[in-house]
Amino acid sequence: MKKDKAFLLARHSEALALFGERVHAVRPDQWDEPTPCTEWSVRELVNHLTAEQLWVPDLVTDGAGIDEVGEAHDGDVLGTRPRAAWDAAARAARRAFAEPGALERTVWLSYGETPAVAYCAQMVTDAVVHSWDLSRAIGADERLPDVLVGFALDEVAPYASELSKSGLFAPPVEPPPGDSHQTRLLALLGRRA
Fold first, then answer.
1. Domain ranges for the chain
2. Rounded-to-integer distance, Cα 21 and Cα 86, Å
3. DSSP letters spanning 35-100
4. Distance CA 108, CA 110 (A)
5. What is the DSSP string of 111-137?
6. pTM listed for this prediction
7. Is 112 left (phi over 0), alpha (psi -120 to 50) or beta?
8. Superfamily of 5-188 according to CATH
9. Considering 105, 119, 183, 184, which has the largest number of Cβ atoms within 10 A of its Cβ?
10. Do residues 148 and 15 lie in contact, with contact meaning Cβ atoms separated by under 8 Å?
């Protein structure tokens, strides 16, 4: 799949918008509901994605390393207005990646030096998959846009088998016969559609 910078930024924007739609669909009584991410409630899942977006300006725009940022985005970053917190963090991440030259930079992640373009692609994939998690948790439409599924599948397929070794992902599961691209993506990341 073509992954030029304009294509990547479009997918990033679409993935954030998709997750944001789901965040805005959460009813007040659903924030404590479980998600397919067994360790997280709806609020904890949204908090995780929001915190991830808060890291982007620090790493991409400011060139900070994870040690410099430290615990700035740990704990509850949603406060009393989780939707507004998500919206602000997503806008800031979108702006940071869209800055001229941003995708040519290198960022310092927990596993070392990484091209910003690869970091952005990982962030797209994370938002896409967690959009499904959030959709399932709140009873929203679980269908993901084909272009985002294709992008995420291309991104994660080469290293999916290694992800479960990190302890942050469930092991891949066998997709059912005649599976769709979405089902295959979810199965690679340990989810049963």
1. 5-188
2. 11
3. -SSTT-BHHHHHHHHHHHHHHHIIIIIS---HHHHTTTT-S--STT-HHHHHHHHHHHHHHHHHST
4. 7
5. TEEEEHHHHHHHHHHHHHHHHHHHHHH
6. 0.91
7. left
8. dinb family like domain (1.20.120.450)
9. 119
10. yes
